[in-house]
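Inverse folding, one chain.
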């Protein structure tokens, strides 16, 4: 429903004090699903300065004895990252994992075919898995389904997970690791439907390869979880729905997830249209949910399949340069305040679909379209860092299906959308509701009446809020305090027996309500 008051306010016909009204109803019995910890995953690709000069910088005074940047690792841990995807991305479709094991001085330096850089292979499988153990994050390895082979994939699982005295387990031990790494999450390639991908395949060829790779990998370790390469080609003339249908039809007995990727941008410099991207995110999730249901229908013992949203972010400004050296600067997006608000939009969608989206990986962790940015002397935290860290506190909680009435708008090319983009989670142990509200109106503060079927919320609430007058405000080295969240405890006003709260224009708010 579109409120006439919204139009009047926008036209300046009502006084600013007469803020438009919304209604949010909370019912803790209306659950969606548990917010899986892996929704707060991240991604590290051999691209630009993500690995070399980001995670890994041997000889730096900021690095430990293994060459890992300690400041980056701490920032990642403080962001509460749970899962790290590696080594790509487009990079993986030309990557031979065997180049990245053994004595570093003997590893080959090769030109890589995705981004045009030189790959020294000094950060390989053992370094990545050691890094994950030290950082206390779960590893996710994506295999080469482009130029790679089924045997390459099988042997990679053997190298990381085999406990018996086999050829590749013996090689791992010679390389200094006796105990298996027990990597549980494996991707069956990256964006193979995309013509930009080395080894690009049509759906028939991809599913044949992925089926055989899945069988071979599970013969080594039946406990692993596998992610099919869902479509990432949403361009004109591409049929992403048909690709996913074929993948689910052929691989439904072998896979545990199908992937989705989405990058958004504000090329038109239209704030409200930019944050209307939630319509596309929701639609893609819901289409794939339906495809999964169709693939499993009529099969009583069908394998559960979930969605891995394993690449997502704002990315539209930075695309790289002509450097072709190790650690060249590429995709070094400088994020602003409105990009930080988009983080809330993504997480709200993931939480609203908590029953199907069981994994999500922000792309990427450092320097390359990332919340953490380094140089030789230190790092700074981009504005997008702070919502990611705060939403991660809601992992393992139960997502709630809210009833929301809100003033709305109709962005260009999309259906009517509420200005208040919302999600909620519930901690049954403490009877606490986390109410996540993005006000994507550029000009309107919106007051919401908060109703609860469980009973009246406590009179006070804890507030976490990101709000800044300048939508384009950014951070830099030595200056990353400008766009930061504020926290406070407020006494909620009451109207008609219900608490009310005013969500400021262009803001992201998390209310913690005790029931």
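Residues assigned per position:
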């Amino acid at each position: 429903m579109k409120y006439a008051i919204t139009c009047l306010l926008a036209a300046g016909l009502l006084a600013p004090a007469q803020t438009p009204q919304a209604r949010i109803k909370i019912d803790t019995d209306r659950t969606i699903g548990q917010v899986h910890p892996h929704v707060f995953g991240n991604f590290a690709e051999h691209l630009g300065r993500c690995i070399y000069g980001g995670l890994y910088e041997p000889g730096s005074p900021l690095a430990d004895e293994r060459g890992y940047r300690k400041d980056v690792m701490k920032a990642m841990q403080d962001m509460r990252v749970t899962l790290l995807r590696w080594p790509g991305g487009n990079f993986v479709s030309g990557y031979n994992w065997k180049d990245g094991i053994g004595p570093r001085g003997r590893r080959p330096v090769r030109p890589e075919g995705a981004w045009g850089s030189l790959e020294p292979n000094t950060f390989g499988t053992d370094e990545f898995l050691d890094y994950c153990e030290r950082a206390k994050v779960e590893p996710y390895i994506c295999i080469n389904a482009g130029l790679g082979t089924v045997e390459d994939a099988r042997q990679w699982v053997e190298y990381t997970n085999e406990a018996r005295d086999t050829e590749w387990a013996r090689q791992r031990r010679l390389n200094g690791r006796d105990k298996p790494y027990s990597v549980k999450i494996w991707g069956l390639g990256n964006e193979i439907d995309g013509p930009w991908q080395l080894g690009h395949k049509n759906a028939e060829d991809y599913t044949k390869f992925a089926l055989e790779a899945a069988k071979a990998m599970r013969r080594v370790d039946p406990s692993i979880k596998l992610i099919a390469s869902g479509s990432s080609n949403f361009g004109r003339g591409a049929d992403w729905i048909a690709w996913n249908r074929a993948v689910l039809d052929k691989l439904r007995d072998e896979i545990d997830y199908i992937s989705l990727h989405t990058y958004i941008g504000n090329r038109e410099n239209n704030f409200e249209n930019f944050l209307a991207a939630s319509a596309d995110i929701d639609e893609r999730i819901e289409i794939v949910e339906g495809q999964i249901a169709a693939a499993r229908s009529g099969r009583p013992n069908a394998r559960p399949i979930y969605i891995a949203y394993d690449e997502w972010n704002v990315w539209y400004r930075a695309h790289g340069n002509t450097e072709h050296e190790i650690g060249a600067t590429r995709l070094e997006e400088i994020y602003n305040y409105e990009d930080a608000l988009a983080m809330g939009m993504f997480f709200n969608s993931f939480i609203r679909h908590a029953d199907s989206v069981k994994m999500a990986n922000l792309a990427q962790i450092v320097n390359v379209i990332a919340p953490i940015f380094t140089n030789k002397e230190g790092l700074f935290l981009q504005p997008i860092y702070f919502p990611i860290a705060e939403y991660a506190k809601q992992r393992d909680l139960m997502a709630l299906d809210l009833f929301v009435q809100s003033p709305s708008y109709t962005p260009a090319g999309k259906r009517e959308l509420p200005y208040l983009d919302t999600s909620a989670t519930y901690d049954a142990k403490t009877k606490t509701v986390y109410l996540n509200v993005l006000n994507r109106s550029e000009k309107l503060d919106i007051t919401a009446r908060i109703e609860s079927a469980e009973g009246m919320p406590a009179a006070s609430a804890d507030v976490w809020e990101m709000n800044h007058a300048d939508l384009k405000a950014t951070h830099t080295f030595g200056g990353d305090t400008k766009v930061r969240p504020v926290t406070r405890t407020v006494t909620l006003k009451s109207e008609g027996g219900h608490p009310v709260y005013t969500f400021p224009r262009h803001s992201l708010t998390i209310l913690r309500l005790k029931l």
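The longest helix spans residues 278-296. The chain has eleven helices and 26 strands.
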